[in-house]
Structure prediction request, 95 residues.
Amino acid sequence: MAVVLAFPTTKVFDILTEEGRDDSYYLDLIAKFAHFVFVQVSALVFALIATAIPFFLFSYLALLALFYAVATAAMTAIALFEVAVFYNKSQAPEE
Prediction:
């Protein structure tokens, strides 16, 4: 998150916000990050419940939540990598 918030005064922030559009890449990135955090917390809570109540169905669903949480972590990392690509292109010398 700090990577995304470090850009407010740079040219890349203007590119990401797309002049304040409601469907800008910046809002999409923040939504992905918020989803990532929500899924991580939900998976942890689900795992705690599955540990407290040893029932096969809870354990199975907690494992599925863990797999989904790992997938969201990977997708959030890819989204942040795309921001790095935007930033890198914005810093290239103009021809």
Remarks:
- The radius of gyration is 18 Å.
- The chain has one domain: 2-89.
- The chain has four helices and no strands.
